[in-house]
Design brief:
0% strand, mainly alpha, 215 residues, 84% helix
């Protein structure tokens, strides 16, 4: 195992960076999409139900099947991987964003409007900061989930550590097959832990102490 890692260290490091970069960028994009959608639907019970339904149904879809379906229109490579990861990443964030915004007391919003704040300014400066802890918890769940999905995306020749896993599985019993799978799996787990720690630190920096105490 150590010999395998030593001989391929540059390749492993580069694949790890690709994997981490794919997950981070897709999670950021998914967060923006989910929060925008949440701000559009959270005031309507009907639209909220639709958003929660889409999120619940989407999470039941097998990621492997989604990637397989996307290969037909999008081909192999980065594009189907990005679409798949963003899709699955957005679902928990959307659900948490809707819940976080809906749970803000109406009196707080009314007070902000009463002192002359516009609807948009109230949303940006009052509602979103108050909902951010719940949104961030959704982001953390999403990041852990799509870290594994990004590995599965290697089926469509996407970037990352999944290539080591599929390469090893395709030649089980052969030389270094188990080492290849182990490197991919352990690498994904370690990256997931690192990203979760970074998101935990982000929460410490972006959530005010008063809001942290309330949650």
């Amino acid at each position: 195992m150590f010999q395998y890692i030593g001989e391929r260290w540059d390749q492993i490091w580069f694949a790890s960076w690709q994997h981490f970069s794919l997950v981070v960028q897709c999670t950021v994009l998914a967060t923006v999409i989910a929060v925008v959608l949440a701000t559009l639907v959270y005031r309507s019970e009907r639209l909220t139900s639709v958003a929660n339904g889409v999120s619940a149904i989407g999470l039941t879809l097998p990621s492997f099947a989604v990637i397989g379906l996307l290969i037909v229109p999008l081909g192999f490579g980065v594009v189907p991987s990005v679409v798949t990861v963003v899709f699955f990443a957005a679902l928990p964030i959307l659900r948490n964003a809707v819940v976080g915004l809906a749970e803000i007391p109406p009196t707080v919003v009314e007070s902000a409007r009463g002192i002359g704040m516009s609807r948009f300014r109230t949303l940006v400066q009052v509602e979103l900061p108050m909902a951010w802890p719940i949104i961030l918890s959704g982001v953390r769940v999403s990041a852990q989930m799509v870290m594994g999905i990004a590995a599965i995306a290697a089926y469509a020749l996407g970037p990352g550590l999944g290539g080591f896993i599929f390469s090893g599985l395709s030649r089980l019993g052969g030389a270094n097959a188990l080492s290849s799978v182990t490197v991919g799996v352990v690498g994904v787990v370690l990256l997931a832990l690192v990203l979760d720690l970074l998101l935990l630190g982000l929460g410490r920096l972006t959530i005010s102490r008063g809001i942290r105490v309330q949650h």
